[in-house]
Amino acid sequence: MSASQKLSERMAEMVSIAVRDGVFDAGKNENDRNRCRRLDSYGLFRRDLRDSGRYYPTDAARERFAGSAAEPQSVPERDTIAPPTGERFPHHALADLFPMLSDAELNELSDDIAARGQENPVWIFQGQIVDGRNREEACHRAGIVPKYSEYRGDDPLGFVLSLNLRRRHLTESQRAMVAAKIVDWERGMNQSSAGSANLPTREAARRLSISERAVVSAKRIREHGSLALIQAIDSGRIKVSAGAEISYLERQAQDEAIRAEERQIAARAKELRNRRLSINRASRTNMINLIAQQGKVSAGEMPRAAFPLGYCDFPWEQEAYSNETGQDKGLKYPSMTVDEGMRLCAGEKSPFTRDAKLYFWTTTNRFRDAIRIIEAWGFAYVTAITWDKVDIGMGREVRDRTEHLLICKRGEFPGIDLYTAKPPSLYTEKKTQHSRKPVWFAEEIERLHPTMRKLELFQRRESLAQGDIRLNGQWHFWGFEAGDAQDREAAE
């Protein structure tokens, strides 16, 4: 941040809060959200990838505002204590959150203390050192009796984090390793004396101002990484994201990998990640197909848990509805209400496997209703492809020209391979007869998921033109002619 970028009083207050609490939540306050975006551009804030109103302080913010923010808790009165003659205080598990200095660094600190004296005490909690291991060791090397003070608060974890995050210039990867130790407290932390130390991943990530993904990566490294790999990340030499990928190797191979130059390590980690994702994606695809083969498919009935991939052109009930015929005027097929659609594939009636993907057509004015239906079917909206029909239509507020294919997932459905070409979010093709969608969309679904069994709802095989990709044997169909009357009566 340049000197010309001066902060307003409110912006300075927001940064101070973020430094103090580890996060600033703007909520629905649009003015604060705008200020957060400006602080992001100044390099003082970093936005949460999942919550647009949540921001974390950067190292630059900590360095600039470390002295201005209020402490998370008041520092207790320093009661001078000392260990028994000729002995040292043992180390509390909390002290292990932050690594010891190297031998050379300890010697430098020892020389500094010998010249200037010990400025900060070694903190004791329940008879053990919770902060100041390096200072104590440096004092002994300098031949100086360390100064101790007793911590009497009720949140030793918060106290240790407050002292060290302000004093140390840690990278995000180093903070992630600290957060992982907090989450995995059962591996050495005495929970009965740690107060709020046994934190879930999100809370640990918040307190260390990092992403949850970084904490998950650090946890994997602590569980599967070699000692050399852990030390390389603790020292700041390797990023936690690269370390997580290297941790999938055997321990000896990990040690060999981290001996390379930093650029080579990053390239190796990327190669390992791509290979692992490719194997995992293929394994999940095979498993989903095996589960789908156990599903129930009977002629004339809605299948049950038999398909991992669905394609649906829903027969929306239009406003020009005829009570006499039960059909929308101009439509050549029966329509359905939103409530009927929600019940059609909900719960045990679902034709889809637990891990599945759904492509669902909707018009712009039906977008909210489409979301209601797909959520009732157990899916979550991911993204969409828009069809530009070229010829403009009619409309009450705007003249219609587009429809949207919603892409939805549920469970652990595998993502698309990194190197597979993704379809564009906008496709243009002149519309033909009413409700007929371009075959391009089905061709893209087949290209992206060639081994998946697919079910197209509200479609008849006989209506497809010769050469249509959906006639390749991987596609199955269900429409109103296939026993829909019974299903609708049962729903009512």
From TrEMBL:
Pfam family, one: MT-A70
Coiled coil (residue ranges): none
Domain of life (superkingdom): Bacteria
Family to which the UniProt record says this protein belongs: Belongs to the MT-A70-like family.
Protein name, per record: MT-A70 protein
Biological source species: Neorhizobium alkalisoli
